[in-house]
Amino acid sequence: MGPRSAIYSGLKHTFDYSGRATRPEWWYMHVAWFAVSYINNLLNSNNQISRSEGTSEIIEAFIGLITLIPMISVGVRRVHDFGKSGWWYLWINIIVVSIILLLGGVYRLIETSSLAFLPFVVGLGCLGYYFWFFSRPSDEGINRFGPNFYHRSDMKMK
Q1: Sequential DSSP letters for the chain
Q2: pTM (2 decimals)?
Q3: pLDDT over 90 at 74, yes or no
Q4: Residues 48 and 102 in one domain
Q5: What pLDDT shows up at residue 52?
Q6: Is residue 154 part of a domain?
Q7: Are residues 66 and 105 in the same domain?
Q8: Do 61 and 7 sit in the same domain of this protein?
Q9: Looking at residue 9, what is its pLDDT?
Q10: What domain count does the chain have?
Q11: Which residue segment(s) compose the domain that 60 sits in?
Q12: Given this model, what pLDDT does residue 157 score?
């Protein structure tokens, strides 16, 4: 599955929280979101879009709202792909975001200390775990959420 077909599949299944999503679908959706956000921030930092105050925040919020539901959908279907319930997507996101926010508060307390690098290292570890979790291999064949994308010959459910 190439980038174009992966992004198209992710957007096509925006309101579909059943079934499975492949690793390329999850990765390319995240890369596309990052690229759009980066380009928006780059244009706004140079005042290319608008010179009025607050426009960049409105555009960023609009991009976030547009991509929120497809990203949740592809994330839920991604955890289905390796046999977990969609609730795992919620819990992993809550845990990772909470740890990163907590580390931001810890950094403010110890920013003048020699341990100021520690929250950064732990935050990178959390992000690494997040990407490892969603990059796990798919279940072979059919699981309770449907057939594997790469094994479409197993179309009969058990």
Answers
A1: --HHHHHHHHHHTTT--SS---HHHHHHHHHHHHHHHHHHHHHHHTT-S--STTHHHHHHHHHHHHHHHHHHHHHHHHHHHTT--THHHHHHHHHHHHHHHHHHHHHHHHTTSTTTHHHHHHHHHHHHHHHHHHTPPPPSSEETTEE-TT-GGG-S--
A2: 0.77
A3: yes
A4: no
A5: 65
A6: no
A7: no
A8: yes
A9: 86
A10: 2
A11: 1-81
A12: 47
